[in-house]
Design brief:
Helices cover 45% and strands 17% of the residues. The chain has 64 residues and is an alpha+beta fold. It has a two-stranded parallel sheet with strand order 1-2.
């Protein structure tokens, strides 16, 4: 379960991006995809969330 405080922050980020006509893409490592998971729980996030890549192992980070 995701804490309400993280959901609230994610809602703020999504609203900010929508208001400015921006999109977000990210690469995650230590979070293991948690940031993407939280952002995509917000209804309508697909309008501003483009993509995410999780590179967790050291070898994947070097290859990227």
């Amino acid at each position: 379960m995701v804490p309400d405080s993280l959901i609230s922050m994610a809602e703020d980020v999504i609203d900010h991006l929508k208001k400015r006509g921006l999109v977000i893409s990210m690469v995650e490592a230590g979070t293991g995809g948690l940031t993407s998971a939280v952002l995509t729980t917000i209804s309508g996030s697909s309008k501003v969330f483009d993509r995410s890549l999780v590179c967790y192992s050291n070898s994947s980070k070097v290859e990227l």
